[in-house]
């Protein structure tokens, strides 16, 4: 039985006890305090509009050490033609992450309730966006939860070649400059692994998270 969360209790089950696919619990709500509590425990919400809220901590986990980001010669050239901004237009960035996926026929978990929650967390300084502009137009970017020494990436989008990769470079440079240890990329993908992200066991990830931000 997957545990059900109640509206008034922000306690999460131990993610180490979840099955490998990572479903830790369901239910509850997207109160910003609950959502931050989830991230501090290596858990994130991910569900479709018609589903109950689902809370995940997959095994294995994908992480990226900022110094290990692979940047090709062509990507270095692309980087020079774009302008990078941080937290300049978070609302447009998170909506673009949704809209580009929907336009491509992929569907998106970034529903209105998710947007409302993360916009509030952004106002609190707990969520950041890294944005790529070309001729003043937002053409790529990403957003995620900022835990201090760990950045939890949520989603990215690209309307032009390499625009999302450029945003990832900007995030990695920001993390190196400000003493972040790693970027949580959540679910393994070949795209991110090709750029230097690596799989680690859920137990290792949770231990690293506890060491860096005092969670779990």
Question: Strand content of the residues, in percent?
Answer: 25-35%
The low-confidence runs, each spanning 5 or more residues with pLDDT under 50, are none
The major beta sheet can be summarized as: 7 strands, mixed
Computed over alpha carbons, the radius of gyration is 17 Å
Helix percent band:
25-40%
Summing up helix and strand content along with how strands pair, one would put the structural category as alpha+beta
* Main sheet: strand order: 6-7-8-9-10-5-11
Query: How far apart, in Å, are the first and last alpha carbons?
Result: 21 Å
Could you tell me the CATH topology label of the largest domain: Aminopeptidase
The helix count comes to: 7
Mean pLDDT: 96
Report what the structure shows.
This protein is of the alpha+beta class and 216 residues long. It has helices at residues 32-40, 73-81, 90-103, 112-123, 163-177, 190-194, 202-213; strands at residues 4-5, 23-27, 44-45, 54-56, 61-64, 83-86, 127-134, 137-146, 150-158, 182-186, 198-200. A hairpin with a 3-residue loop joins β8 (137-146) and β9. The relative contact order is 0.19. The mean pLDDT is 96.
């Amino acid at each position: 039985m997957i545990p059900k969360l109640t509206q008034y209790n922000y306690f999460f089950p131990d993610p180490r006890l979840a099955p490998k696919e990572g479903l830790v619990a369901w239910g509850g709500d997207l109160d910003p305090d609950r959502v931050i509590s989830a991230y501090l425990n290596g858990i994130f919400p991910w569900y479709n509009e018609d589903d109950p809220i689902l809370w995940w901590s997959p095994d294995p986990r994908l992480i990226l050490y900022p110094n290990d980001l692979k940047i090709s010669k062509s990507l270095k050239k692309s980087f020079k033609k774009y302008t990078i901004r941080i937290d300049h237009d978070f609302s447009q960035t998170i909506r673009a992450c949704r809209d580009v996926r929907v336009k491509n026929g992929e569907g998106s978990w970034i529903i209105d309730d998710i947007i409302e929650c993360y916009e509030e967390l952004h106002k609190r300084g707990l969520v950041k966006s890294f944005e790529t502009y070309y001729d003043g137009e937002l053409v790529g970017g990403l957003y995620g939860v900022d835990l201090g020494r760990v950045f939890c990436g949520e989603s990215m989008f690209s309307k032009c070649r390499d625009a999302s990769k450029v945003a990832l470079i900007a995030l990695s440079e920001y993390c190196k400059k400000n003493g972040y240890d790693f970027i949580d990329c959540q679910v393994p993908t070949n795209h991110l692994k090709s750029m230097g992200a690596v799989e680690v066991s859920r137990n290792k990830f949770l231990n690293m998270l506890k060491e860096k931000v005092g969670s779990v």
